[in-house]
Design goal:
It contains 5 helices and 4 strands; from the N terminus they run ααααββββα. The chain is of the alpha+beta class and 188 residues long. It has a single domain (8-183), classed as SMI1/KNR4-like (3-Layer(aba) Sandwich), CATH 3.40.1580. A 4-stranded antiparallel β-sheet has the order 1-2-3-4. It is globular and about 50 Å long. This is SMI1/KNR4 family protein. It comes from Streptomyces liangshanensis.
Length: 188
């Protein structure tokens, strides 16, 4: 997983996975750089090049519900309050956490739950039932995808044992493109 340089093979696979007739126009490099400056981040590759050159959202493709949402958007079911989102703050997790099973009082873990949902990631879309796909843009997990729901958060990728697919955005899209199944249906 190379977060700094776009791989031509990965970009070709992304172009194939997101059919142009279902895509929103790309932001262009000026638009991507403006977003990055506004949030004090640099998007990881190959997502960065996808948004700049291929598309800024697509109704066909992952995630399964409504597809890939635009860079600056949130899913329709996200809720009214997006003021807590701070992309420049590091994403706080490095391993899965099921807060529903956490024995600590909710008042103690609530700030961390809020940080998991709101810090250091862009939301790519939803698989429904309150399950959101996040691409981490700051912190040790930069470039990795996480599925965050109302009960916990789990990382995506073979390195975590959650799937046989490679880590990162290209691996996530590649798995969807070849299986047309959610990542959690794949037997490792």
């Amino acid at each position: 997983m190379d977060n700094e340089h776009a791989d031509r093979g990965e970009l070709d696979a992304l172009r194939a996975a997101f059919p142009a007739e279902h895509c929103l126009p790309p932001l262009g490099w000026d638009g991507v750089r403006a977003f990055e400056r506004a949030h004090d981040i640099v998007l990881p590759e190959p997502y960065r090049t996808l948004v700049a050159e291929i598309c800024d959202g697509c109704t066909e493709g992952p995630p399964d519900i409504d597809g890939l949402i635009p860079l600056a958007a949130l899913p329709a079911d996200w809720g009214p309050d997006d003021t807590q989102r701070v992309l420049a703050e590091p994403f706080p997790l490095t391993e899965a956490w099921v807060w529903e099973d956490d024995p600590r009082p909710y008042e103690e873990i609530e700030p961390l739950i809020d940080a998991v949902s709101n810090h250091g990631s862009v939301v790519l879309g939803t698989d429904g039932c309150g399950m959101y796909w996040h691409l981490v843009v700051t912190g040790p997990q930069r470039g990795r995808l996480w599925n965050i729901s109302d009960v916990g958060a789990a990382p995506f990728g073979a390195v975590f044992g959650t799937t046989a697919a490679t880590d990162g955005f290209a691996g996530w899209v590649g798995l969807w493109s070849t299986t047309r199944r959610p990542w959690y249906d794949v037997v490792v």
